[in-house]
Amino acid sequence: MGRNIQLGLRIDKKLLDKIEFLATNEGINRNLWIKRALATFVRGQEEGIREEATEDYILLRIDKKTFLKFTNYDNVPEDIENARKQKLKQILEVKYDGKNIHK
User: Fold this and answer.
1) pTM for the complete prediction?
2) How many CB atoms lie within 10 A of CB 12?
3) pLDDT in tens, 3-52
4) Nearest to 70 by CA among 44, 42, 83, 51
5) Alpha carbon distance 84, 53 (integer Å)
6) What Cα–Cα distance (Å) separates residue 2 from each residue in 5, 33, 72, 73, 94?
7) Domain residue spans in the chain?
8) CA atoms of 68 and 59, how far apart (whole Å)
9) Among the residues of the chain, which ranges form H helices?
């Protein structure tokens, strides 16, 4: 993780009691438990952002630059690029006669 920064937090007493219970159950101190829980939460959030960015890229809601920014990929994976091309192809195949959409 690199450098550590000390962080002062005010935590609700009931939440702290639950954290201490869980930490004791696992045989670790509460600070270690909190660090691990935060790291797990952050990884989950990052994964969620990657999944959303992937969906948004495939569905043409975001461009390549934005996709790469949110996913930390160097290049768009081939399967994702192919899924985007397929979606674009589907959109271009739709015909509109002024009243109805035809596929």
Assistant:
1) 0.74
2) 8
3) 888 888 899 999 999 999 999 999 999 999 999 999 999 999 999 999 99
4) 51
5) 12
6) 10, 18, 19, 22, 52
7) 13-102
8) 15
9) 13-26, 30-58, 64-71, 78-93
